[in-house]
Amino acid sequence: MSKRRWTIIVVPQGSSASRILEVSYTALKLVGSLAVAASLLAILLGYATVRRSLNLARAERLEVENARLANELNVLHGRVSGLIDTVSSLEARDTQIRLLANLEPIDPEVHAAGIGGPPPPGGPVLEESELLGRAGQVRVDLNALIRRANLLAHSFREAGDSLAGHVERLAATPSIMPTTGWLTSAFSRMRSHPILHVARAHEGLDVSAPMGTPIEAPAKGTVIQAGWVAGYGNTVTIDHGYGITTRFAHASRILARVGRRVERGERIALVGNSGLSTGPHLHYEVHVNGRPVDPRRYILPSVVTD
Description:
Layout: E1 5-10, E2 19-24, H1 25-100, H2 108-112, H3 128-171, E3 182-185, E4 188-192, E5 199-202, E6 205-208, E7 214-216, E8 221-229, E9 233-241, E10 244-254, E11 261-262, E12 267-271, E13 281-288, E14 291-293, H4 302-305
Antiparallel strand pairs: 1-2, 3-6, 4-5, 6-13, 7-12, 8-9, 8-11, 9-10, 10-12, 10-13, 13-14
């Protein structure tokens, strides 16, 4: 059987003679195969070239992003370092405040909360693994700083409450002489009564003063009694809290009513001569947990009470 052949007639334009080409079927298939292979190779080369270009562009973008992240991490590390210094300063101040508030200082190891300082900023651009490690370190540092800050916040609240309690107690502690005058009789467990002429305890101070001299509250408190009391005459009693009460007797006029909240230095009565009294004066008593004490223990210099 003869081989199949293809005849190709080439007819040029003009008067040139036509040309006849004979091509075998096998040669034609070979040429076609080569053409297809060449086309596939061109496509593969083109794809590889495009992919390589894309990878290079992506690598450049990643490098730029890497440099940006490294710079931001360095800046963040610098800020974390500054925060650590600030927290350390606050911890030192916290120790002082706790001492003023009569509280035990927090152990330095508890303050540290297991945190170390961040690496110094700057340095070369980091690889991805190094960036992830640095980012993890920042996260650890920030978590530790948060723990330290929470501890400080709790400590400051505790110290604040303690100081507030001290302030309230100081404000409620008698510390001034209730009136201006002359001390004529001191606190005594036993003395001869000037009118009754019998030996009995004198549970306060007698301060002679002109009639109508103002009597002032020696500390913050609540008036729990205001009126006539046998032997004491016109009397005002103030409850200052913390087990402390004060009594002001022989007044000519009472200015405060029961239930009224008074502040240190506020007028509550006027010096008088009511009750068992030999002349205008204030009888001043201080009771602690129901027991009379010498009021002079609760009279401080003005430089202290102010």
